[in-house]
Amino acid sequence: MKHSIRLAAICGLFSHILFAEEAITLRLKWQPGKTYQMSTVTKSNTRMSMGGQDISQKHTINQDLSMTVSQADDRNQMEVTTTFGRMAMDLSMGGQSVMSVDSAKPETVAGPMAEVTKMVGESFTFVVDQDAKIVAYKDLKALLGDAASNPIAAALMDEQKLKDMSGQGMLQALPEKAVNPGDTWPFKVEIPLPQVGDMAVNGRYTFERMDVFEGHACAVITLTADIKADFSGLDEVNPQAKAMGLKIDKGSMSGTYYHDNALGMARQTIIRQHFDMTMKNPVDGEAMTIPVDQSTTTTVKKVEDTKK
Fold first, then answer.
1. Are the C-beta atoms of 34 and 67 separated by less than 8 Å?
2. Is there a domain that residue 203 lies in?
3. Does residue 24 sit within a domain?
4. What are the tens digits of pLDDT across the range 33-47?
């Protein structure tokens, strides 16, 4: 036990020496000719009281994807093609499994749930400049598939809106100057939801420290934010939502990024969100509050030369 404590103290000392508190200029970059293998896991938990019973619901979505970067053209721009891989969904209520779908297990993909896995194998492309800023999108209509004729989906996939949102979020809004541990900078993401309303995220990033994540020197960056959502547009297009009096209040977000400056992106991001939904109880019409907690973890699994 003494040896373990001593070893931990020595590692801590050398970590402090290795990551002296020097200013760092955070940068994004894509590596031409590389393919990034990534995974995203989203977990959602809700709780509600109905008919004298407390009901819990858990929902998990696993998504694998690859992002392949072309060589730079004469304008120093590169195409990044994202292809959706395996998708799996699990839903449970009250501790009992309700649904389990996995694109890697064809026997589970049947009926309405077949729609869930239609994105597997689909791709879309965005174009980035030498500063890793997105300047154009391609193949979005192919990504939408049958939903391309839906005005809400089409509006969400509007190229200019996507560029605006991507330029604000996912740690794209990096500070221009070098930062020291403890430095903060603001960010804001506005998400228009046609025929539904809109959502705004206002928060701050903080550069906490340098650390090692899975063998890579990374800047640990945290975020905190408030979320404001206005879904009043639902009242006009969805009579059921209006009758239920559905509203979302008290939205908040927190997260942690392990940003590898040598790689040019986060090795892992963990984003947590909390909402309090209010609605009328369908049993007695009384107002009830449903807390919703969601976490999304995105991890770079591998970076390799593009296979030809």
1. no
2. yes
3. no
4. 999 999 999 999 887
* Measured distance CA(92)–CA(58) in Å, rounded: 5
What pLDDT does 172 receive? Answer: 59
Collect all residues with Cβ–Cβ distance below 8 Å to 150 and sequence separation of at least 6: 144
3-class SS of residue 307: coil
Listed in order, strand segments (DSSP E) in 214-286 are 216-230, 247-260, 265-280
Which pTM does this prediction carry? 0.80
Closest CA to 258 of 226, 295, 214, 294: 214
Environment class of 6 (CB within 10 Å of its CB; exposed 0-12, middle 13-18, buried 19+): exposed
Q: How far apart are CA 229 and CA 246, in angstroms?
A: 12
What distance lies between CA 32 and its chain's CA centroid? 24
Quote the CA–CA distance of 262 and 268 in Å, as a whole number: 14
Contact criterion met (CB below 8 Å) for 123 and 138: no
Taking only the tens place, the pLDDT of each residue in 201-250 is 889 999 999 999 999 999 999 999 998 877 666 656 566 666 666 677 67
Amino acid code (one letter) for 129 = D
DSSP string, 135-146: EEEE-HHHHHGG
Any domain includes 247: yes
State the sign of the Cα–Cα–Cα–Cα dihedral 102, 108, 113, 117. positive
Domain-located, residue 207:
yes
Element holding 240 (H helix, E strand): helix 239-244
Q: How many domains does the chain have?
A: 1
Q: For the segment 125-177, what is each residue's pLDDT rounded down to a tens digit?
A: 989 998 888 888 887 766 666 555 555 555 556 666 565 555 544 455 678 88
CATH number reported for the structural domain that contains residue 191 in this entry:
2.30.230.10
Nearest Cα to Cα of residue 185 among 205, 207, 168: 205
Give me the residue label for tokens 């103290």.
Answer: 9
**CA-CA distance, 116 to 293, in Å (whole number)?**
22
